[in-house]
Amino acid sequence: MRRTIMISWLLLFVSLFYQSTQDGIGKEKGVLHCGPQNMTLEKFDQMILSTWQDDPSCFALRDVLIYELVVLIEDQEVHHDKLAVLHNQIGSTHSWSWTPYLALECASHSVRISLRYNNRTSPWTQEKTLPGRGASKKPQVFPRDKVFEVGRHGNFCCIMPAGAVFNKMYMSGYNNSNMKTRKINNQTYVLTVLLDQPSNNSCTNVICQTSDYGACAYIGYRPDDRDLQCETQDLESVDCLWTVGKELPKRQLSTEYQLNGSDCPNGSKGRCSQRIQEVGERTWTLTAKNNLGKRELTDRADLMKRVHMFAPEGVSASAVNARNVTLSWRWKVLRYSNLNITCQVNVSHFETNTMSEIFGVGLLSVVVTDLIPNWTYNVAVRCGTTEHFWKWSNWSASVNFHTRGDVPDALDVWMQARDNQTVIIWKEPQSNESHGDILEYEVSWTENAERERLNKTKVDHNFLSVSLTLDPTEEHIVTVSARNINGSSSPTTIVIPRRKSDITNVETDGIIGSDGGFNLSWSVSSAASCGYVVDWCPASENCRVEWLKVPPNVTNTRVFSKSFKAGVRYSLSVYACTNRAPVFLERREGYTEEKRIEDSLFQSLKWNQRDSDVEISWEPVPLRNQPAFIYGYVLYVDNNNNKVLSVSTDDPKASSLTATNLNINTYTFTVKAKTAAGEEGTTTITATLNSLTDNLIEIVCVSLVAVFGLLSLVTILCFRHWSCIKHKVYPPIPTPVLRDKWLTTGENRCHHLRVDQFPHSEADVMDVPELHKPGAPVNDYVIQNVSAHTQTEKGYYNQPVRNCIPQPSSAIHPPLRSLFPNPLYSLTMVPGYQWCSSGPEPQGGTHLERSSDGYQPHSEAERSSVNQTEVRPDSPISCVSTYILLPQSPQ
Ligand SMILES: *[C@@H]1O[C@H](CO)[C@@H](O)[C@H](O)[C@H]1NC(C)=O
Ligand SMILES: *[C@@H]1O[C@H](CO)[C@@H](O)[C@H](O)[C@H]1NC(C)=O
Ligand SMILES: *[C@@H]1O[C@H](CO)[C@@H](O)[C@H](O)[C@H]1NC(C)=O
Ligand SMILES: *[C@@H]1O[C@H](CO)[C@@H](O)[C@H](O)[C@H]1NC(C)=O
Ligand SMILES: *[C@@H]1O[C@H](CO)[C@@H](O)[C@H](O)[C@H]1NC(C)=O
Ligand SMILES: *[C@@H]1O[C@H](CO)[C@@H](O)[C@H](O)[C@H]1NC(C)=O
Ligand SMILES: *[C@@H]1O[C@H](CO)[C@@H](O)[C@H](O)[C@H]1NC(C)=O
Ligand SMILES: *[C@@H]1O[C@H](CO)[C@@H](O)[C@H](O)[C@H]1NC(C)=O
Ligand SMILES: CC(=O)N[C@H]1CO[C@H](CO)[C@@H](O)[C@@H]1O
Fold it and tell me: Which intervals of the chain are annotated as region Disordered (predicted)?
């Protein structure tokens, strides 16, 4: 083991030593004559080509030889290159070529070849020179008519005649920043240009000034074509299409095309066609070539999947009906009849377009349905293959046709209850619904219960409603149809429900519109089997409703009408559509837009004073005077422009407001309506309050005068007929003494009337001949508890009994219990009491106290004689005689 390692090391060392002895060109002179020999230099177009051989001594070398090549233009090194020669290539002829940037005519081009071996340069060098075109009598510019690619740098030289003076060299159309000129020898100048402008119609001139002669250059692009796609139209040839790259028209710059090796004469249009033997999968190769380069595009396809059909030819409406039409056409290519074809039909009228699609093998016709009768249409057809659809054909030429007429479409009918009438209304059929001029409408109706008794009426085509007087307690079925020249539409039926009065007075929610309409939504109703009907109308007027119908799954809609006006209150109702009569669901009222309420809204403002309160009242504001929702009212009270108080209510139905605790003064009352926008509709009224005491005095004075008048009358009457009265009243009384005493002394004045009490009277009836019907009993004086009580409350004050009843005669005289329910008396009693009691009784205390005092004994007596249980202590007991006798009172 150790031995073998030792041997290996020894061998390695020996080999290294051997190698090092061979190194170095200079060291082994015999061998190291190695270098190039037999060198040639030629030009080939604008390329230089050099060949050479190895010196035979090179065979001794075991390693790679490196030839270094240097190119010089006019002794200036412009290029450097290396060429490695492997051991087994030693001895062969080596060649090298290069295209210099400058035209070979411009200057001498030299190539120098030397060998480099182990980083040492062999002294054996070979050099050859290609001389440039020498100076002639005229300046010369090179290269000539060369093609350049846009964006590259171009070098042009100008060789001057001997002795000529160089002025300037330039390329026409370029500015100086893109050009640079330098001198490479006494006679030659080189212009370097950045070629950024393609030559247009001709080449671009390079001009060497001092010379009449210049040169021309073509600047263009390499082929840049893209997106090759091959298809077939007629199934017999292939059409390949592609996007053409930038191309210049000049021959030197134009691109030539070949498809699968065959020329494409019109290739520059991006299209090339070729006949084909069979349609099948195949690769299509397009070659685009110009002076600057070449490009290849390929597309692999089965042309059966690439059928781009021709448009149908001769499309015509072969059978025209009212609501359908048959379109037929021909095919340009017979083989299409074997294809499964899909066609699209574009049906248009006015600005509406509908597209329908059908398929079939070799399709040659189509029936277009759902057309409007008596209507003009325009159609066009295009097709493609159904399987492996590739592209639609072009549209066929379009065709016009006019459908036949038909009966009108069914009407949209609704109903409206107005007063005691039911108005059946329908929408005017649009021209696409009437299918001709409507001649008349036919309305028939019957009671649901007895359908056989059908009533019919015809309505002129100018009218869109009819008013029926139907029995409101019965359900009715109404059908409406329209008739045109072709006949009657299918009838539309509406069931009129029994009239329920409460529908007109349902609670309504407010709604505020937006953008001139309402966004209305409502809650789902299970009754709405066929949707909902929304109708609307100004809330204040008898109007023709407008309506719209909504499908069952929709519970909101936008209500819009051209007739909507701001500041008008609309009532919107939602009904459920059922297979019976429509069912009312809910109602809203509102404005599309509220408007300001003008001043003087309250036209009948009234005031009414109650003590120190004033009630201002008004008539309810009619809806048509409410251009906005009223949420309540405010009353402002001013006195000489000083605000006194304000009262308000949030009840929009209120029709009065009361200002309390006002003084006797003149006030301005201002009522305003509260709206969303503030307080509007200002209306004022001015009122002067009356003094309460003034009123009272007035009443009292009037009463006094009246009482005096009455008293005077009674007195006169009594006086005149005294003897008669006396005779009539007193004959049965057996105590003339007392009577005399009364008469003469007048001790108790009141008892002149008490004398009038009927001693024989059994009940509470008293005749007052003097006052009412002299000589006749007054039957009205029946005591009634209720009336007695009422009278008392109204101020019918009792006279103290004690005053009026003479103490000694109580046993003799009948009890005094008559009543005078005449309010006149009650009024006069108050002041009169004083006078009455001014006789024997001392003044003091109130009359009420007295009456309760004085009545007690009498009331007992009364109870004993009359079955009067509820006469209260203050029951009115009159003492009229006081008044009668007063003027005669001696006391
Ligand atoms: C060859 O010599 C040059 C200078 O003479 C030196 O720069 C270079 O590194 C050397 N190369 C090798 C491979 O020895
Ligand atoms: C170039 O011109 C210079 C002076 O103008 C002259 O000395 C030189 O010899 C000329 N060279 C050649 C190659 O003619
Ligand atoms: C086309 O209309 C006619 C007459 O209106 C009708 O008889 C026929 O059934 C309709 N055809 C189609 C496919 O709707
Ligand atoms: C044509 O294509 C349609 C759609 O793919 C297909 O339903 C129909 O069967 C095809 N007809 C024939 C005859 O292949
Ligand atoms: C219906 O109302 C109108 C006025 O509103 C009235 O003249 C007519 O008599 C009424 N008819 C019936 C049947 O009540
Ligand atoms: C078609 O409509 C026009 C007016 O719109 C009408 O004059 C004509 O009678 C209608 N034709 C038919 C066949 O209904
Ligand atoms: C139909 O007309 C007759 C006679 O005018 C009338 O008695 C009857 O009530 C009407 N029927 C209905 C349902 O209005
Ligand atoms: C209502 O139903 C129709 C057809 O059933 C449908 O086209 C529509 O989208 C539905 N609308 C809503 C809001 O669900
Ligand atoms: C083929 C050929 O021309 N070979 C010549 C190369 O040059 C040597 C001397 O330099 C000639 O001896 C060869 O005949």
Answer: 838-874
- Res 125: pLDDT: 86
Token pair belonging to 635? 């009353």
Element (H, E) at 441: strand 438-447
Question: Which class is domain 313-402?
Answer: mainly beta
Q: Is 551 in the pocket of ligand 8 (CB under 6 A)?
A: yes
pLDDT at 697: 66
CA-nearest of 764, 770, 757 to 729 is 757
Superfamily (CATH) of domain 19-130 = Immunoglobulins (2.60.40.10)
**pLDDT higher for 727 or 332?**
332
HEC secondary structure over 672-734: EEEECCEEEEEEEEEEECCCHHHHHHHHHHHHHHHHHHHHHHHHHHHHHCHHHHHHHHCCCCC
pLDDT beyond 90 at 482: yes
pTM of the predicted protein model = 0.54
Confidence of residue 644 (pLDDT cuts 50, 70, 90): confident
Q: Which ligand is nearest to the CA of 554?
A: 8
Decide the pairing of beta strands 569-576 and 583-591.
Answer: antiparallel
Between strands 365-368 and 376-385, the pairing is: unpaired
All structural domains of the chain with their residue ranges: 19-130, 140-220, 226-305, 313-402, 413-496, 503-591, 606-689, 694-720, 727-867
Q: Is the pLDDT of residue 454 over 60?
A: yes
- Residue pLDDT, tens place only, 866-884: 444 343 444 343 333 333 3
Same fold, 413-496 and 503-591: yes
Q: Which residue out of 420, 471, 474 has the highest number of ligand 5 atoms within 8 Å of its CB and is therefore the one to mutate?
A: 420
Topology annotation, domain 226-305: Immunoglobulin-like (2.60.40)
Query: Which DSSP letter does residue 461 get?
Result: T
What fold is seen in the domain 413-496?
Immunoglobulin-like (2.60.40)
Is domain 606-689 given the CATH code 3.30.420.100 in the classification? Answer: no
Rounded to the nearest integer, the mean pLDDT of the chain is 78
Q: Are 367 and 400 in contact (CB under 8 A)?
A: no
CA 25, CA 31: separation in Å to the nearest integer?
Answer: 8
d(CA 225, CA 298): 11
- Among the atoms of ligand 9, which is closest to the Cα of residue 53? 6
CATH class, domain 140-220, is mainly beta
Rounded to an integer, the average pLDDT of 613-632 is 90
Termini Cα distance of the chain: 185
Element of type H or E holding 831? helix 823-837
pLDDT over 50 at 776, yes or no: no
Identity (one letter) of the amino acid at 829?
M
- Please give the DSSP secondary-structure letter assigned to residue 627: S
Q: What is the 3-state secondary structure (H, E, C) of 466-486?
A: EEECCCCCCCEEEEEEEEECC
Calpha distance 429→440 (Å, rounded): 12
Residue from 420, 445, 446, 455 whose mutation best tests the ligand 7 pocket (most atoms within 8 A of CB): 455
Q: How are beta strands 376-385 and 65-73 bridged, if at all?
A: unpaired
* Residue-level pLDDT at 12: 42
Closest residue by CA, ligand 8 atom 8: 553
Residue nearest to atom 14 of ligand 8 (CA): 553
- Architecture of the domain defined by 503-591: Sandwich (2.60)
The H-or-E segment that residue 228 falls in is strand 226-231
CB count in 10 Å sphere of residue 176: 8
How high is the pLDDT of residue 401?
95
* Ligand 4 atom having least distance to the Cα of 386: 2
The yes-or-no verdict on residue 332 having pLDDT over 80 is: yes
Q: Is the pLDDT of residue 857 over 50?
A: no
pLDDT at 671: 94
Q: State the pairing for strand pair 509-512/583-591.
A: parallel
Within 13 Å and on the Cβ side, how many CA atoms surround 204? Answer: 25
Q: Which two tokens stand for residue 228?
A: 């090759």
**Residue 679 β-bridge partners:** 674
- pLDDT band (50, 70, 90) for residue 835: very low
